[in-house]
Amino acid sequence: MKLAIKLAYRNLIGAGLRTWLNVIVLSFSFVVIIWMKGIMVGWDHQAKTDMKNWEIGGGQYWQKDYDPYDPFTLPESHAAIPTALINEISNGEIVPSLVVSGTIYPQGRMQSIAIVGMNPHQSIFMLPTEKMDTTTSAIPAIIGSVASRNLKLNVSDYVTIRWRNVNGMFDATDVIITDIFSCNVPSVDVGKIYIPLEKLREMMSLKGEATILTFREEQSERPEIAGWSYKNTATLTQSVDELIQTKTVGQSIFYAILLLLAMLAIFDTQVLSIFRRQKEIGTYIALGYTRKEVVGLFTVEGAMHSILAAIVSAIYGLPFLIWMAKAGWTMPIEASEFGMAMAQTLYPVYSAGLVISTVLIIVLVTTVVSYWPSRKIAKMNPTEALRGKLQ
């Protein structure tokens, strides 16, 4: 085996430009696949971290009728806070929020909006709720940057909101925008306005009630509470997992095309090599090599392309991948338009498993592709091969 590797290396180096062209193409596949997979892993990590920081914390209880995708459930999505959780709420370990449907009238226009009541002193979310803890002539409110752009509202602007209370009576009041925040989670930003929880309870005549209870720390299990549905972080981030899975399948097709082009070059090189080196093959057999050993020699020679490609890709790809991990990849279009948790700049994450698995897959595929044309050697007549007769 050691001799086969030595001979294969000499033959590859002796082939000159043809070898290096194959190696460069293959090394490009290494770098691109690892970079793109790193982007997907980084996106997954960032999206889940942002959702925990801005929306879901360490898990939630939802009032049993609450469905964030069905606004018609909001009028019924409220219930008294369970007494078993009162102490945790007092300690700031659980943040209750009340969600009701309403209408907002910016510049005389009418637009549906979800009014979210939240404690201004909460510390679980990154929302700047402390900006609602102020004395103004109207109800202090905060909105996201996308909502601000859509509604054409700025800080210190007054706007009217309308709601229907628990008794079915419509009412309206003015709010003043005290802050505009920016976040990467569209469901926190788009179509929502945040006001103090106690004020919203007073407006809705829902004293001591809530729609969502969010925990600070993630726990493997939570007790079942009548009238509430427990949602752990895995459930709440399932949409991200499904999206990443869908994107990964799409990317796999791109990887396959990239590998196919590289393997086509390796296959052609092997076929050409066997065609032009028939005398050499005959000499090997005359010297005592078995056909199996000669096939192994040519297979090692082909597979060695991937080893050299891994080395070359490490030389120029490693600095590039490290730089991308620090600088990130900025999306060419506005990420908020995707309607999903996505930062404008994605930072790839490369794990040892990702790099090793990518290298092993490419080496394995290259070996198989190299072996495929080499099987022809087993059918060659060594005497004819020594004479240089084409077979």
Automatic annotation (TrEMBL):
It is a multi-pass membrane protein. Keywords: Cell membrane, Membrane, Transmembrane, Transmembrane helix. It is found in: Cell membrane. One of its GO terms (cellular component) is plasma membrane. GO terms for molecular function: transmembrane transporter activity. Belongs to the ABC-4 integral membrane protein family. Residues 253-382 form the ABC3 transporter permease C-terminal domain. The chain crosses the membrane at residues 20-43, 253-275, 349-372. This is FtsX-like permease family protein. Its main location: membrane. It holds the Pfam family FtsX. The keyword Ribonucleoprotein does not apply.
